[in-house]
Specification:
about 140 residues
Length: about 140
């Protein structure tokens, strides 16, 4: 699994002009990508990492501040543009594999006590955010 984590003061995701998920910060906006060998254990580990990641003010985590997270599926995190000008997406897991694992990350975060908002898997989403810092971290599991 791969995640791009941004510390935000606010973030939202809209589908067809309607807000699907929205958080007011401090919090984390997280794009999550899934590859072929990912499993429920990696989803659990990613959730724990996100909940405890100390990138908020004062080196605090979401768990320290009860800060919200906005999770958005993002298969393009596994795009490969090393050859030519057109990325390939072969490293990204197909929807039937990826969707339950993104859902598992969300479910695990909620089990840990997190407030989590989400996008809509597979939809054409519009993401808006205010990156605070700016702080952006890439996590690969």
């Amino acid at each position: 699994m791969r995640a791009v984590v941004q510390r935000v003061s606010q973030a939202s995701v809209s589908v067809d002009g309607r807000v699907a998920g929205e958080i007011e910060g401090p919090g984390l906006m997280v794009l999550v990508g899934v590859t072929h060998d990912d499993d429920a254990e990696k989803a659990r580990r990613l959730a724990a990492k996100l909940w405890g990641l100390r990138v908020l003010d004062g080196e605090k985590s979401c768990s320290d501040l009860d800060a919200p997270l906005l999770i958005v599926s993002q298969f393009t995190l596994y795009g490969d543009a090393r050859k030519g000008r057109r990325p390939t997406w072969t490293a990204a897991a197909p929807g039937p594999v990826a969707e339950p694992l993104v859902d598992a990350v969300v479910a695990e975060l909620r089990k840990l006590g997190a407030t989590v908002e989400t996008g809509v898997f597979g939809a054409d989403m519009k993401v808006a955010l205010v990156n605070d810092g700016p702080i952006t971290v890439i996590i690969d599991l």
